[in-house]
Amino acid sequence: MNKSYFFGLFFIFMALFSCNAPNVIENIPSDSETAPPISGYFKKRVLIEDYTGTWCGNCTRVAYAIDQVFTKTDKAVSVAIHNGNDPYHFAGIQPLKELILPNSDLELPQSRLNRTIVWTSPEPSNVQQALDLTGNNSGLGLALNSTVTNGNINLDVTIKFAQNYSNLKLVVYLLEDHLIYMQRNYTSYYNGVNPIPNFEHNHVLRQSVTNILGDPLLGSFTTGTSVTKSFSFPVPANVSNPENISFAAFVVNENNVVVNVRNAHKGESQSFEQNP
Q1: For residues 257-261, average pLDDT
Q2: DSSP assignment of 22-77, as one string?
Q3: What are phi and psi of 99, to 5 degrees?
Q4: Strand partners, 215
Q5: What is the pLDDT of residues 122-141, one digit of tens each?
Q6: Please, what is the average pLDDT of the chain?
Q7: Which one of 85, 96, 145, 188 has the largest count of C-beta atoms within 10 Å of its C-beta?
Q8: pLDDT at 206
Q9: Phi and psi dihedrals of 177, rounded to 5?
Q10: What is the reported pLDDT for 196?
């Protein structure tokens, strides 16, 4: 058998095999902190959920670490979920507690990155762990648009896709900033003052607009498509000052891990953070 005949058979075989081959898997770029931005993908932010309390003297350790994250990146979104004998206690904390610590007591401080990843203690020494979850190439982006008028909130959350997804859920939080109240402090952070008078509590969870574990985004979503979810509801009674309202919205996958997150002030009209 000569070589030309052999190679002819080989290429015929490969052509027939290729016709029945499965679809090629998407060529998904790296979304690491240092990966260069790829056109069409989105800025990737990290969600920090801080389980805290004004009475919790060791919770200032996490608060200080979050401050340090914000000095190093604009790709972080923080949510303070207060618990216990606290003026900002969030009554709906139980589903989250069961998610992060099933069958265990919620001993504070606790902090999670992208909902389920334990932020290694001491958190101020592990700021890089949070930074490593940011990047330039998320497969989906979010844009928030809101109005607050006559005590009513109208909020649109639009999600745009740069790759194919299914089995997603959307979580939307209403937060309040600039809440002034004392903070117990058993650490050396914040100059070791205990209690810290007039401590500014920001990103405080006031209401989960969706189910706190997420509302399902029904169906599958393909590259280039988008979906908008609209919400209309009164300003919650526990909000001290409607001028200090902000929002956080994030998408989680079937494992409750955050795919991407975005925050917005009230009245803000956002465009997508999409790479050119």
Answers
A1: 98
A2: PPPPP-PPP-STTSPP-TT-EEE-EEEEEEE-TT-TTTHHHHHHHHHHHHH-S-EE
A3: -70, -45
A4: 170
A5: 999 999 999 999 999 999 99
A6: 92
A7: 96
A8: 98
A9: -110, 170
A10: 98
